[in-house]
Amino acid sequence: MGTDIWGKIQTKLNQEFGQDAYTNWIKPLTLVSTDARVAVLQAPTAFIGNWVARNYGDRIVALFAGEGLAVDRLEFKTGAINRTVAENNATPVVTKTQIPSISRNKTGLPGAKLDSRCTFETFVVGKPNELAHAAARRVAEGGPVSFNPLFLYGGVGLGKTHLMHAIAWEIQERNPEAKVLYLSAEQFMYKFVQALRFKDTISFKEMFRSVDVLMVDDVQFIAGKDSTQDEFFHTFNALIDQNKQIILSADRAPGEIEGLEERIKSRLQWGLCVDLHPTDYELRLGILQSKAEQQAVLNPNVEIADGVLEFVAHRVSSNVRVLEGALIRLFAFGSLVGRQVTLDMATECLADILRASDKKVTVDEIIRKVTDHYNIRMTDMLSPRRARSVARPRQMAMYLAKKLTSKSLPEIGRRFGGRDHTTVIHAVKKIEELRSVDNQIAEDLELLRRMLEA
Ligand SMILES: Nc1ncnc2c1ncn2[C@@H]1O[C@H](COP(=O)(O)OP(=O)(O)OP(=O)(O)O)[C@@H](O)[C@H]1O
């Protein structure tokens, strides 16, 4: 019966979306089962599963209902990969929960599943993330506990979760017996609340205190949640006392998380706090090239013209998730049109993403924020004055303009009272140098960057 229904649904999808979409995406799918309101579909590749989930997931769920079969979600199988890709309210957006996951955790701990694609091998290293990567590697290699806790922080979609998963895979690879527990702070709270509800806090405590490595993602989530913070604090201390490794991540440095108790902030700073900086052009291009190679294996017929990846790296935001979404879209587009994806086609296909990226930070905004921050006058910022009280903020603003906008060096120079591009190069170098030796500069820079990117 299920096969008949699937045949009917496929026919309807063919009528609604046309022959090309049908042949490329719908026809390769086989219905495996429809138990417990979950329809399991077999897809030849994870890419096809992803694409169908995002683009046709809602419609397929509705068509099942039209055939009198209540389905709440779709699950796609691709060989050994078993993943949930579409809830009946799924939107066509790549989200973390849509990442295919395979649980290789044999410890029986109730953590979140690890994404098999997030390993050190697939993590592209560049200047903005090299320290975080090196620290993550060191922790994953084990040996005497060196950085405990390791605290990774940075803006949205810069690779914190990827690095945490990579550490977990590496530790499990090196020591399959290690009890590694990875979960989000939200899951930590949820489990704690459940334990309270079922009066089972003893098992909760025992379970968390029995792990060798505890990894908690998005720690900022527990800010302002007093009982959870309290429990987290005790778990943290118990594990540190036993010399067990703790790895945490958050969207900002511990000291900047409002609503986080001071005692926790100070504990978090015991170990090593490393920042993943917004990506620069080189890192974006490296990530695109690496991900394009992976996509090319899944889509051997798609050809991306020279210069397209460079264009995307220039124009698309510093958030890697957005970058990845843009690339997947280009490959999907290429496989639909069956021709080489040219620069013009890419511009058209990514128009909304490019518009959103362009809206980002402007040089004027940077100048305004920096003058406010240092309490100097705009006229001084743009004047020829060379006094350090003015020159340093000016260099800072130039540095930020270079890093956060796609403006060229001469353009930036012009915006700062008609200066030459070599002055901008000098400013960028100076701030690069200072940020590693002068804590105040590093902090100011971080604060300004966050304000501008907020
Ligand atoms: N350096 C990198 N190399 C390869 N892929 C990367 C890199 N950085 C990020 N990614 C990819 O970008 C996506 C977003 O990364 P991730 O989920 O780790 O970000 P995050 O910092 O945890 O973001 P959030 O703050 O939203 O939790 C993932 O698919 C990840 O694999």
UniProtKB/TrEMBL annotation:
Protein localization: Cytoplasm
Residues covered by the AAA+ ATPase domain: 146-276
Major location category of this protein: cytoplasm
Domain Chromosomal replication initiator DnaA C-terminal stretches: 362-431
GO cellular component, one term: plasma membrane
Domain of life: Bacteria
GO molecular-function terms, A-Z: ATP binding; DNA replication origin binding; lipid binding
Binding residue positions for ATP: 157, 159-161
The keyword Nucleotide-binding is assigned to this record: yes
Keyword set, alphabetical order: ATP-binding, Cytoplasm, DNA replication, DNA-binding, Lipid-binding, Nucleotide-binding
Swiss-Prot/TrEMBL GO biological process terms: DNA replication initiation; regulation of DNA replication
Region named Domain IV, binds dsDNA: 335-454
Region (Domain I, interacts with DnaA modulators): 1-91
InterPro entries per record: AAA+_ATPase, Chromosome_initiator_DnaA, Chromosome_initiator_DnaA-like, Chromosome_initiator_DnaA_CS, DnaA_C, DnaA_dom, DnaA_N_dom, DnaA_N_sf
Transcription keyword on record: no
NCBIfam families registered for this protein in UniProt: DnaA
Family that this chain belongs to: Belongs to the DnaA family.
Domain notes: Domain I is involved in oligomerization and binding regulators, domain II is flexibile and of varying length in different bacteria, domain III forms the AAA+ region, while domain IV binds dsDNA.
PANTHER family cross-referenced by the UniProt entry: CHROMOSOMAL REPLICATION INITIATOR PROTEIN DNAA
Assembly description: Oligomerizes as a right-handed, spiral filament on DNA at oriC.
Database matches in HAMAP family: DnaA_bact (MF_00377)
Function noted in UniProt: Plays an essential role in the initiation and regulation of chromosomal replication. ATP-DnaA binds to the origin of replication (oriC) to initiate formation of the DNA replication initiation complex once per cell cycle. Binds the DnaA box (a 9 base pair repeat at the origin) and separates the double-stranded (ds)DNA. Forms a right-handed helical filament on oriC DNA; dsDNA binds to the exterior of the filament while single-stranded (ss)DNA is stabiized in the filament's interior.
The name this protein goes by in its record: Chromosomal replication initiator protein DnaA
Source organism: Paramylibacter kogurei
Gene name, Swiss-Prot/TrEMBL: dnaA
